[in-house]
Amino acid sequence: MPKIKTGRVNYPDGWELIEPTLHDLEAKMRQAENDPNDGKRNCEALWPIFHISHQKSRYIYDLYYKRQEISRELYEFCLEQGYADANLIAKWKKPGYERLCCLRCIQTRDHNFGTTCMCRVPKHLREENKVIECVHCGCTGCASGD
């Protein structure tokens, strides 16, 4: 017999410590989704959403892996409930991807010549005095060597 879904969620211990920050980020996300995008390109309208999603994932990643302030149970709960992007966090754990802004920047199918995004090029290898913004997420540089 299938489980009956109820509206109740059992929050693990420590949830009350991260709940205010996650609710603030959720409110920012709702505001970014509802903002009018008049005068912007289609891709630019999505940049704030990518930034907030990255911020939520980085917050949970730092609490668990860097500062070790939350339990594994709470970390997995946040991933299961969609508060953080599990695939992006998995990439952050690999060498060379510690500062990755979004997963679209490393997908070769989305770029010319089967390469990665320009924001993945280290700053010392770029042309002088040229500001580069990623078309997908608005990142100006997420190479780990910067």
Automatic annotation (TrEMBL):
The entry's keywords: Nucleus
CC annotations in GO: spliceosomal complex
GO process terms (BP): mRNA splicing, via spliceosome
Predominant place of localization: nucleus
Entry superkingdom: Eukaryota
InterPro entries reported for this sequence: BUD31, BUD31/G10-rel_CS
Protein name (Swiss-Prot/TrEMBL): G10 protein
Organism of this sequence: Rhynchospora tenuis
